[in-house]
Amino acid sequence: MAGGFVVASEGEGGLYNGKITWFVVLSCMMAAMGGVIFGYDIGISGGVTSMKPFLKKFFPDVYTRMEEDTKISNYCKFDSQLLTLFTSSLYLAGLIASFFASFTTKAYGRKPSIIIGGAAFLAGAALNGAALTIHMLIFGRVLLGVGVGFANQAVPLYLSEMAPSKYRGAFSNGFQLSVGIGALSANLINYGTEKIKAGYGWRISLAMAAVPASILTLGALFLPETPNSIIQNTKTYDYDKAKQMLQKIRGTTEVDAELHDLIKAKASDNSKNPHTLILQRNYMPQFVMSIAIPFFQQVTGINVIAFYAPIVFRTIGFGESASLMSSVMTGVVGIVTTFLSMMLVDRVGRRSLLITGGMVMFGAQMVVGGIMAAKLGDHGGLSKGYADVVLVLIGVYVAGFGVSWGPLGWLIPSEIFPLEIRAAGQSVVVGVNFLFTFLVGQTFLTMLCHFKSGIFFFFGGWVAVMTVFVYLLLPETKSVPIEQMERVWRHHWFWKKIVR
């Protein structure tokens, strides 16, 4: 097996031995393409909804307000429920698909869910690129939502289960890094296609989603299944296949301690409905986190930037091309800081990054809201100096998210569930994430119209709440083997009063 460096994690059966092998690295890189398709869609939708030819064809009312109505407020020019439905319909479809994905992931494994996700996303990309009517456009978005629902259900679990426990944070944060790469790629493509004078650039932007979807779908055919999933779906006590896979991915024959913990987790699994099981008292901490973490991730306001950054930048006075380039700049910041999070998460821990990132986001949002309240009226724009300051502060905000709630909002839920409720727990995480992504996406332009600059104070308030929540109620999970995670709740000052 390809070389690596030895890691050891404490387990009940002794030490977890192994290397970070090329087999694991390549497998996780391929699986993380699920993050690329998610990020590409996030980035592409905000860009095309600011392109004049796209608006003129599908949303003529918005186009007319933007170009000809001089009386309407800066904050209200893009207020359209149909326009927001284009963006948010994907997440409503993903919410529904995630519960079907939960069954598939538990009953058949992580790999089939990844394949289904890639194939559905590929079909949606083709339909969007060829769209002639708003109905084709929305139906294509629904197919994209099915793809993202399956991929977001399976990929974080796959990465957590394949990675050595000591470096699980870095591997799992690869999902958010991939989301950032996908979003940046989309922003760069939007910046280029917006300049096509014939006006069909938006078709290229939407259709290019087929590239990462094709790579994911074809590559997933060759992915190995995780040892955890192999054991979960083994009907007899013959665990040789799981042991052989463990030996292959860890690069050593000494895997008995880890295998012992996997078998023990399998023994605690039962035939009860996992969505019912997760409601039991002993799983209450995990259930609370499965709702709170994705909820807080969305009410940071990140999708204000992710979906509508070009619209926000146009609101404060940037031109169409400058708005798209500003989105590229914030995308670069997101990737760099997510990579930094990968380097730090297994050293300083999850809690420190979440608390620090929360304070950075809160400060940036308060100042941006203050500048817009004081300097941006209903007409005209910010002066160049203030507009540049807002751009820098939004970059600071994205940096705070990139080191904290961006990657860790997916990492922590993927590592806290015991095997018997893991697929169900992840489906709750994905479902809550998509529900609030849909709600934020569908209501943001209306909120911007009515709240105006107060929108930044609204999301900043939630950032303050979630930072306190982490400080009080989230235990540290750094370096804890995934099949021994229940011990963190038994030693926590609050949760130890609930779990038995």
TrEMBL record:
PROSITE patterns xref list: MFS, SUGAR_TRANSPORT_1, SUGAR_TRANSPORT_2
| Listed CDD domains | MFS_STP
PANTHER family, per the entry:
SOLUTE CARRIER FAMILY 2, FACILITATED GLUCOSE TRANSPORTER, SUGAR TRANSPORT PROTEIN 3
| Location of the Major facilitator superfamily (MFS) profile domain | 27-478
Q: Which SUPFAM superfamilies match?
A: MFS general substrate transporter
Question: Which superkingdom does the taxonomy of this entry point to?
Answer: Eukaryota
| Stated name of the protein | Major facilitator superfamily protein
Q: Where does the record say this protein resides?
A: Membrane
Q: Which ranges does the record mark as transmembrane? A: 20-42, 82-101, 113-131, 138-159, 204-223, 287-312, 324-345, 351-374, 386-408, 428-448, 455-474
Membrane topology label? Multi-pass membrane protein
Q: Which GO terms describe its molecular function?
A: monosaccharide transmembrane transporter activity; symporter activity
Q: Tell me a GO cellular component.
A: membrane
Organism equals Perilla frutescens var. hirtella (Perilla citriodora)
Family classification: Belongs to the major facilitator superfamily. Phosphate:H(+) symporter (TC 2.A.1.9) family.
